[in-house]
Amino acid sequence: MDEKLYQEKLKKQQERHESLCRRCGACCGVLDGDPCVNLQKNADNTYFCRIYETRLGKQKTVSGKEFTCVLIRENCNNFGAVYPGCPYSS
Ligand code: SF4
To answer: For residue 63, is it left (φ>0), alpha (ψ between -120 and 50) or beta?
Structure first.
């Protein structure tokens, strides 16, 4: 497979993977009452990260607590996180 086709395939796989997210905000602290300061709410009550492309690494919650943002797959597989209804943690 040539490089261009390979990159297109990877991009489609990534888009399919990300489309599974329900935008519930649970992995960003909505259920804990002290979510990430970068989490924003849509009019339809779903959530999005306002710095999604650069989110990984040190971040802070609304109350100022520091935490490290990691990929959802890493959060679930390596740290055992479970979020109700989340397709990545079920
Ligand atoms: S807990 Fe799962 S479904 Fe909910 S926002 Fe996070 S990744 Fe998406």
So the answer is: alpha
Query: Does 65 have pLDDT greater than 80?
Result: yes
Q: Is 75 left (phi over 0), alpha (psi -120 to 50) or beta?
A: alpha
Question: Whole-angstrom Cα distance, residue 33 to residue 3?
Answer: 45
Measured from the CB, is residue 17 less than 6 Å from ligand 1? Answer: no
Q: Count the domains in the chain.
A: 1
Q: What is the pLDDT of residues 39-48, one digit of tens each?
A: 999 999 999 9
Which residue segment(s) compose the domain that 55 sits in?
22-79
- The pLDDT value recorded for residue 79 is 86
Within a domain: residue 47? Answer: yes
Residue 21 near ligand 1, beta carbon < 6 Å = yes
Q: How many angstroms is it from 26 CA to the middle of ligand 1?
A: 6
Q: Does residue 5 sit within a domain?
A: no
